[in-house]
Amino acid sequence: AQKVTQAQTEISVVEKEDVTLDCVYETRDTTYYLFWYKQPPSGELVFLIRRNSFDEQNEISGRYSWNFQKSTSSFNFTITASQVVDSAVYFCALSEAKDSNYQLIWGAGTKLIIKP
Amino acid sequence: SQTIHQWPATLVQPVGSPLSLECTVEGTSNPNLYWYRQAAGRGLQLLFYSVGIGQISSEVPQNLSASRPQDRQFILSSKKLLLSDSGFYLCAWSVRIRSEAFFGQGTRLTVV
Q: What is the DSSP-derived secondary structure letter of residue A74?
């Protein structure tokens, strides 16, 4: 069975601090995809990144970086020098590339509060 | 570029009334389409997905149904709303079944 765990329900930091959001997944498949989405207060889900299970290189995009560790089944997300606009709920998700059936498993989300 | 439109943004409906939420995608052909529900502002629950016109897969038994009358149109319906149908409904599309999905702005439904 697949599972995505975001153990941090809520994180609160002061602006300019670095913050890491954890994501741990479970899957029996060797081919899968991992995603991160941001949901600001407006409600719309914003796609941030997709990672293939065969690509373990870390990704950096501006102040955002992602650390994919297959050995620990983790796909953590770090925001450097956080800003108030980063305040949102962040979701991690997992999809197996096994058959034609769609199956995207979502974590429960981590609410990130950036205080000015 | 591709865009997704979802309406209405908010909706207050009495128990027992019908529901129709519409979602359209522009700028792409034969997208995969999805309806999600988000209760209590947190976890996402996949309700339906469609890989083509008239092809609907239901993930959760419920009081809702979905239809795809046109390639880029996805409709979520109910004949009689229940209080438990309240929530935030999100439509999404993707190019392939396992590629990243792009979401609409959502519909906040309150059943009273």
A: E
